[in-house]
Write a structure and sequence with these properties.
Elements (H helix, E strand, L loop, with lengths): L1 H5 L3 H12 L15 E4 L4 E7 L5 E5 L10 H8 L4 E4 L16 H12 L8 E6 L2 H11 L4 E7 L5 E4 L2 E4 L5 H6 L4 H7 L18 H13 L5 H19 L10 E6 L6 H9 L5 E6 L11
Parallel strand pairs: 3-5, 5-6, 6-9, 9-10
Antiparallel strand pairs: 1-2, 2-4, 7-8
Helix pairs in contact: 5-9
């Protein structure tokens, strides 16, 4: 399964999206049709895309600012072996906005609600990329009976700059955390001209324009006033997970793979090693030639 996460199939991505990308709309026109289905999660819709058959179900979680299509290059490999269900979190891709923005609680509720009617939704293997690792780790901590394995891809604990040093988010007082949030204008300026991730530029037109449309729509509709609640949710979750990690083998032997790219930033190898120590049944692997993680919002 780890090899399936490393490998990608460009031809599959092209096949999957050319069917609806040909009608890619302009900025003021309706969205292109979603590749999956829109599932009710309590008065709003969440985009869920499931392929393959079998158990356990692999459920990938994109990084901050990421979309379900970020997994298109690997889903075909996983679907050859078992069921895989990607999704867009509330406010991303084809999913309706939620009352909150990327809080741990809302992400867990939406994922569980969307998957509950899938015939092979449980047990599951959770895969978290970058900030997505926080969501899957927190969900496993709260629902250990539903998770039979985890893969953490370039996962890290978020930190902020304080007096010239990096401080883990869980160590930052709430008041300081709110004071360090950048103004909405800085996000809008940074993402005023969205671009396609370099790895997708290899694909023929018009497929690479789909991520551009998704990112543009995300930042045009995002309610930045929800940012403080999101960051406080992350801080609280990191604090709980850190406390749990102080217990040896805190994952009680849960199969765990820590997948890392080459050329990580200073201090990252130690943090990845610490993650691998969460379970006695873990291993680290390096994805040689992998690009930087895809977080867009942090």
């Amino acid at each position: 399964m780890t090899k399936a996460l490393i490998r990608g199939s460009l031809s599959f991505f092209a096949f999957r999206f050319l069917a609806f990308a040909a009608t890619l709309p302009a900025a003021d026109q309706p969205a292109p049709a979603p590749p999956g289905k829109l599932v009710d999660v309590g008065g709003r819709k969440l985009h869920l895309y499931c392929t393959g058959q079998g158990s356990p179900t692999v459920v990938p979680e994109a990084g901050a600012g990421g979309f379900s299509i970020d997994w298109a290059l690997v889903e075909t490999e996983i679907a050859n072996t078992t069921c895989v269900c990607s999704h867009d979190r509330a406010g991303y891709g084809w999913s309706d906005p939620g009352p909150q923005w990327d809080t741990v609680e809302q992400v867990a509720h939406d994922r569980e609600t969307a998957l509950k009617n899938e015939p092979e939704h449980s047990p599951c293997v959770l895969v978290g990329e970058s900030m997505g690792g926080l969501f899957v780790r927190s969900y496993q901590h709260e629902h250990p009976d539903q998770v039979v394995g985890m893969v953490l891809v370039d996962t890290y604990e978020l930190g902020i700059g304080s007096n010239g040093k990096r401080v883990d988010l869980r160590e930052v007082p709430k008041e300081q955390l709110q004071a360090n949030l950048p103004p909405p204008s800085s996000y809008r300026s940074l993402h005023s001209r969205p671009t396609c991730p370099p790895r997708l530029n290899k694909l023929p037109e018009p497929v690479p324009t789909i991520p551009v449309w998704l990112e543009r729509t995300f930042f045009e509709t995002l309610e930045f006033n929800k940012g403080p609640a999101m960051m406080e949710s992350w801080r609280s979750a990191y604090t709980i997970l850190h406390q749990a990690s102080l217990t040896p083998d805190s994952l009680a032997g849960l199969p765990l793979v820590v997948l890392t790219r080459e050329n990580v930033i200073e201090g990252e190898p130690k943090r990845q090693t610490d993650l691998a120590r969460l379970s006695r049944n873990s291993r680290k692997e390096m994805a040689v030639g992998s690009p930087l993680h895809s977080d867009r919002a942090t």
